[in-house]
Amino acid sequence: GPTIELRQRKKPKSSENKESAKEEKINNTAIPERVPKHILFQRFAKIFIGCLAAVTSGMMYALYLSAYHERKFWFSNRQELEREITFQGDSAIYYSYYKDMLKAPSFERGVYELTHNNKTVSLKTINAVQQMSLYPELIASVLYQATGSNEIIEPVYFYIGIVFGLQGIYVTALFVTSWLMSGTWLAGMLTVAWFIINRVDTTRIEYSIPLRENWALPYFACQVAALTGYLKSNLNSYGERFCYLLMSASTYTFMMMWEYSHYLLFLQAISLFLLDSFSLEQSEKVHEVYKIYIFSLFLGYLLQFENSALLVSPLLSFVIALMLAKCLQLNVKKGTFVAKIMKVINFYLVCTLTVTLNIIMKMFVPHKENGHMLKFLEVKFGLNMTKNFTMNWLLCQESLQAPSQEFFLRLTQSSLLPFYILVLITCFLSMIQVIFRRINGKSLKETITLEDGQIGERPEIIYHVIHTILLGSLAMIIEGVKYLWTPYVCMLAAFGVCSPELWMTLFKWLRLRTVHPVLLALILSMAVPTIIGLSLWKEFFPRLMTELMELQEFYDPDTVELMTWIKRQAPVAAVFAGSPQLMGVIKLCTGWMVTSLPLYNDDDLLKRNENIYQIYSKRSAEDIYKILTSYKANYLIVEDAICNEVGTVRGCRVKDLLDIANGHVVCEEGDKITYSKHGRFCHEVKINYSPYVNYFTRVYWNRSYFVYKINTVISFQS
Known about the structure:
34 helices, 65% helix, 718 residues, five-stranded mixed beta sheet
């Protein structure tokens, strides 16, 4: 008896230990008491009112966008051609393919014509669905015909109605996320208010409806809301399962809608990795999210015509590196010095594996990854200098420059930025406190009470803090990222001012003793957002109503006349050359073939754009003629706005960038200034003298556009 007992004490079985630990945990767990009916009713009423407010906010925002769009463009009183002209640049291309799908005899035939498209760009067959992420247009066309909407509503209204509806879902998701974080739907109302007031910086829906981000970001907002709920410590199994399923569906849909989605998910994965590294949440939940990434990437790869960009994406390399690092981790007791060293080694291992795997993937997987993006980043951060037209043109785009002072001024005037900074600093410092406690071996509390004043112990809050810091860092460099970051700012600021925990954390640091801190925190969490809401209502609500009352008018008769002439006079087989933005409108309004498109994710199209832009350079008539005929162009359109452009930013006009790229004028210090022996083509061709009249014959013109037929038989008689 005793000998056996002694052996059992020396060599206990791990499985028995685990079972006994589980039994002990079950025995120690208190059996929850039955909740009184009046408390259940209060909870139900709170959830019902919150859900009603969230849905109502989304619907009201969608209706607001529809009304504002109608007043801005006077849309219902326009002819179809005038409506289509409101879609500019790449938006025109996306909507044109929606029209093509509706004209197709069947859905299968329409998809085939888009995946083997040789009627858009001359001498080029493209898979438009893969290259331009046309899944929204495919879905919209199916819904339009399947629901019988063709007998009720015009195609353009159905299309923009879906996008406005998605924006309503976007706002609702932000509402829910802020509500989940703060525990009160008042935070959701404040989030929506700030989002709408700062809509110039939160969305581009007013300027360009069919943009991919307008289709994709609502799904990302749903994914973030589901992830927020999933990371909560006090979530029951049913809620956890629902959040997981919603997160899986929205992640995959987001990836299908936008070609750059995996870069945004990469930032999210980094945030989750840091959350896991700080041991602020169970690793199992975080690794379940990683599995969703892998599933979405491979399913997207298969359904996006084996899109190799997903295989060589940093997201896939990063997630695989995390999985491998987890397999290599040793079971070391937490809090020990060895465990701390292992954390550092694990961090280094993940970074090294990610870079290595990405390099290996690019070596063995044939891909057309956006090489110009890497070159652009090199030039953007001063790592390289270039005279390349495309790179310098991209650098001159407002969305790719650093944000202006007006951006921060607008956020400050709406009181958003000051409260965001307060909330971010408080949450960040609280997070640092928690991390140092973990480093010192102190364990986190299983249940966090309001009296603790430790908002940094909540994993969902820390995830959002890390994510908003990453997005904010990019937004300080590239202004276009503000459309991803500013909605986060609205959500985080609203959560903070409505959260008693945040105020309690501040009071604990200040060691407030004159007033009971818990009571004061509860009062401020209601009073501060109420005061903010009333001040925003007083200052900005009249402005919003004024915008809806004003009847604006989009008037562009020159473009309407040009499109009308093309449809009436140009041969069906004609190919037009001109600026990429104008070519998108021509493709939409007339259906004629063009030489270039306003798309910047394809190296061949970028090269075409640069070559066609030479019509605004100091090149000879013969050079321009050779360029245009190499793309089988029949007509050339010169835009007076580009030819006589007066740019606000020095050196960013198209003709200036072309002169630098062609070496016709060099203004850098130490370099000799040279000039071309030829005049600027767009000016010279208008004068109608030899040799320009030998190559080009003017067939139409108005105040904005000059159309020239490219001669097939050249006569050199003066």
